[in-house]
Amino acid sequence: MGSITLKNVQKHFGEAKVIPSVDLEITDGEFVVFVGPSGSGKSTLLRLIAGLEDVTGGTITIDGKDVTEAAPAARGLAMVFQSYALYPHMSVRKNIAFPLKMAKMEQSKIDKKVEDAARILNLSDYLERRPGQLSGGQRQRVAIGRAIVREPSAFLFDEPLSNLDAALRGTMRLEISDLHNQLKTTMIYVTHDQIEAMTMADKIVVLNRGNIEQVGSPMELYNTPRNLFVAGFIGSPRMNLIEGEYAQSKGAKTAGIRPEHMTLSKESGLWKGTVSVAEHLGADTFLHLDVDGIGKMTARASGEFGAHHGDTVYLTPDETRLHRFDDKGLRIAG
Amino acid sequence: MATQNTKTLARLMMAPSVIALLVWMVIPLSMTLYYSFQNYNLLTPQNVSFGGFFNYQYFYTDPAFFTAIWNTLILVVGVLAITVIGGIAIGLLLDQPIFGQGIVRILVISPFFVMPPVAALIWKNMIMHPSYGVLADIAKFFGLQPVDWFAQYPLFSVIVIVAWQWLPFATLILLTALQSLDGEQKEAAEMDGANFVNRFIYLTLPHLSRAITVVILIQTIFLLGIYAEILVTTNGGPGYASTNLTFLIYRTARLGYDVGGGAAGGIIAVVLANIVAIFLMRAVGKNLDK
């Protein structure tokens, strides 16, 4: 079981109201990702749930039990830290066994659980090594192993992949998603990387300056961003945000169109632009353009599109995929 | 520092200091070695002659010899125990965020700036003195008989004074080690259900092992040669109760005017110090090559 409810949770550091007030419902078995730029309070929120920080106000409930004042260990949660936080002088086996030892479990039971965890995480060959002798990905797995042996009601991940290189990050992303499918335990995952959020989450919580901007499934956030912040944050490359005449003609202060929702042509189109940088990836082509009357825009073409620096390209937005925002930055429905 | 060229240059540049250090070390050592085989007493300086191993035999059969070695050992171990345990305790306290942290830290470190004879004099006359020392005042306040520290517990008193001087050093090294302990590791242990005692045993102590090794090694080197504190307070007495090896050598050479005997004692002390050093490096030095 692992349902977590935050009610009016606040956190102030002195004068600074890092989290003004947050309400959030996390149901059992969900993979929830907190995403936001640095300083958005996502890590603080996770630490409040973990009990590593005291709340200034509000209540935190886990499985119907009020744990607002409970010690971290008493909440039945396990956390994987950004730096892995492995105990450097202990072998992998002892690292994984540590929480069980602290819980005064029988040695034979501990051994069995450690072996099981090591098998799930492909660590069986490394049990006698020290963390210092492992690669980044292996350390990450040990940290996860230390979390799963406790059989927590929820896992908390604090930017666990940010210390890994790009290729390994992709692999570990899959492994964590796999693990979630196997264990079906609630997971809360903090990241600033919206790709991690989009690929792993059942539910994304977009945070900005300590406020929840939007909660929803990855596709909800992609298709119907509630405001300009979410529109600009979710999706890569970023959504093009257009103000001025064009937006007004659509009855909005700001109009948004994703780079992938425009058709490119070398002959004709609604907007005329000059290519400043063209990124050819093979599967996709990203064009960074200076568009007359609008300014800088990014467009994405599937496959190869033969345009280079200085070329003229015409763009036509797919108006059914147009996002409209009012002068408060909120989405205009329809 | 990779090419042959830079290596040669580096050796050339280092040569003067290496040679200076060698001369610095070799000349006094060989002079001491030389005198230790001479019958040379300052009361009869005209009768200098080769004495063979007589000086060594003389020093070894001195009734104070084994007492002095034993006292040296107790002094070193006692001070180490107090400074390491006390240093960890104070370090843990200073690692907490407190009001006026900077000033408190300077205050804690300040005993290290006091010269040994001065510190010993202060302890002798203002703190441990049986009639006007602070401890005597406290004893009288409770209606107890004041303790005459240097007469009743001479070696223990010396240990307290030396420990007071070295506690700041140990605290400083251990505090910096404590500050380098990763915050996330502490939090991870907290989430793993380790209470304060378990966090200390399984996380803090192993993390401190290297710093503790450094403290023990460096302090041992200096503690083997403790001298000023004994001279100022107990003068090695009563009897030989607070005479360590260094003080015994002083006694032989300067009070007995026996240059040869003192030199022989010095060589014995060097040999013993090296035995201790080898033993220490074996026992705790492996902590350093991680």
UniProtKB/TrEMBL annotation, chain A:
Domain ABC transporter: start-end pairs: 4-234
Sequence intervals crossing the membrane: none
Record's keyword terms, sorted: ATP-binding, Cell inner membrane, Cell membrane, Hydrolase, Membrane, Nucleotide-binding, Sugar transport, Transport
Alphabetical list of CDD domains matching this protein: ABC_MalK_N
Membrane topology: Peripheral membrane protein
First-tier enzyme category under EC: hydrolase
Subcellular location, principal: membrane
EC nos: 3.6.3.-
Recorded family membership: Belongs to the ABC transporter superfamily.
Protein name: Multiple sugar transport system ATP-binding protein
Classification of source organism: Bacteria, Pseudomonadati, Pseudomonadota, Alphaproteobacteria, Hyphomicrobiales
UniProtKB/TrEMBL annotation, chain B:
InterPro entries: ABC_transporter_permease (IPR051393), MetI-like (IPR000515), MetI-like_sf (IPR035906)
Bilayer disposition of the protein: Multi-pass membrane protein
Bilayer-spanning residue ranges: 12-37, 68-94, 106-123, 155-178, 208-228, 263-284
Pfam families noted in UniProt: BPD_transp_1
Keywords: Cell membrane, Membrane, Transmembrane, Transmembrane helix, Transport
Highest taxon, organism lineage: Bacteria
Subcellular locations according to the entry: Cell membrane
Ranges of residues in domain ABC transmembrane type-1: 69-280
Family: Belongs to the binding-protein-dependent transport system permease family.
This protein's name: Sorbitol/mannitol transport system permease protein
